[in-house]
Amino acid sequence: MRFANELKVGLALLVSVAIFILGIRYLKDVPLFSGTHEYYTIVHNANGLIAGNPVRVSGVKVGSVAGVSYDADVDSIFVRFNVDRKIRVTNGSFAQVAGIDALGGVRLDVTLGPRENPVIPVGGYVRSASDSNDLLAQLTKRAPRLANQADSVLAGLDATLSGTAELLNDPSSDLRKMMAALRGTATALESTIHAERESLHGILENLEDITGSVREVMDSQDDSLSIAADNLRRSVASLDEMMASLKTTTARLDVVAARIENGDGTLGRLVNDPGLYERLDSVATNLNELLVDFRRRPRRYLSELKIVDIF
Known about the structure:
The protein is of the alpha/beta class. The protein is 60% helix and 14% strand. The chain has a seven-stranded mixed β-sheet with strand order 1-4-3-2-6-5-7, with no helix packed on it. Helix 5 (222-262) packs across helix 6. The model has no long low-confidence stretch (mean pLDDT 76).
């Protein structure tokens, strides 16, 4: 009986220890039943990072921060964090504190190195990114300069508004005169439009009538325009045929001119042979002299001919 009681006490202690361990892992935001590997990094500004904050890879939670401690000797902050053992943290990986403490969203982002690189040993060092990437730090550094620029802009705006108010209050200022001129112009334009309202209305009606008439004419002349377009199309086609025929004729004339120039044919020989021209000229001259002599002395040529022979 006493042995049974001792067994119950032992089982109760084991269950208590298991619950205690699981509770600690749960409070530390460590996976309850899957193993993790611990690494550490060194940063210059924790930006509100505390134990239990999530560790993310590509926006996915893969672990949690195990502890954050400050080392005064090196003026740096050691951050220990756990990562799911399925994650390969290789050489070239780096860690960076991200988020804004005021919004309660501080976390540790881990960017993994190339997969082909060797894995960092468990408990090893993962280098940290430059603190210049932190948005809050950048805003803190730029705040004084931004404040000075804002002051300069506001001072310039105040001076501009003051100067404008003085010009508006001064009756002799150019701005005041310009505003008065614009007001007068607007009043005159309004009076003119009011006086010529009927005339403008009549002009618009006439313009509408003219537009309708032009539309009716265009609608009624659709067939005539189509016929004219067809006639013009046929005329253009005939003109193309005439141009083609003229081109052919010109080509033939070029061939004839080339043959004449080369001395081919009778005309070519006549043009290119001076002797032939001189002989023809001599024959024409002798024939002319014979006709002249025949007119002067016809008996000389007809004395031996009889009327019967002639007819």
